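Entry 14. Ran structure prediction on the chain below.
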Amino acid sequence: MSNRELPVLNVTTGVLFRNGRFFCGRRAANLSMAGKWEFPGGKIEPGETPEKCVVRELYEELGVKASVIKFLTVVEHDYEDFRIRLYVFICHPDEGEPESHEHTEQQWLTYEELMKLPWDECDIQFVRLLKNWQD
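Output, structure tokens:
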């Protein structure tokens, strides 16, 4: 990579957890990182905290009212044209059943099942941290 400074994209992701399973979705063929699995989330708006962002994104993307259980980690990863700074939260779905309109598949999976899926390089950095998570 060159020495040029990459623009930073600050985003959140919400790992919904319930009954020993994690909710995730597979990216559609027309999106970047097509076919990779991910957790829902999105860009932090100006003046918005990461916590408020992840709650908003879970509602916008999945129709779920959720609460943050725990801040897990921040992951930074360089792509060709930008650097992503990803704030990762474990969340609980309080109201509504998640339904994604942005993914070709969506599932509640155990940790062992998560580890068999193709993840983006950024996400796999924190997926391993979910191994010992309990209700």
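The longest strand covers residues 65-78. Will compare against last week's run tomorrow.
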